[in-house]
Amino acid sequence: LALQPILGLAKHPDLIRLTRYENAIPQYTLGHVARRQSVKKAEGRFPGLKFIGNYLEGISVGDVTAAATKTALSLSF
User: Fold this and answer.
1) pLDDT tier at 37 (50, 70, 90 boundaries)?
2) Which of 40, 51, 57, 62 shows its CA 20 to 30 Å from the CA of 15?
3) Contacts for 58-66 with beta carbons within 8 Å, 24 or more apart?
4) How many CB atoms are closer than 10 A to CB 49?
5) Rounded to whole angstroms, how far apart are CA atoms 56 and 32?
6) What is the pTM of this model?
7) Between the CA of residue 42 and those of 1, 2, 25, 39, what are the distances in Å?
């Protein structure tokens, strides 16, 4: 309803198909905390090396965006 005036819709869209993926949200496996610690340790050993991605700070787009922003702001040139 909120998009009707913006998109110029004359009626509600028809639902054609809905697919739900029950196992769609990735789950970290056993040992994930140790892997994260290894990555952080490597960053400490090599100044300027930064790892970023959903395997470190969270799986959602919001989590990855926040982590990328934090990382970018931490860089000094």
Assistant:
1) very high
2) 62
3) 59/25, 59/26
4) 10
5) 9
6) 0.56
7) 50, 48, 28, 5
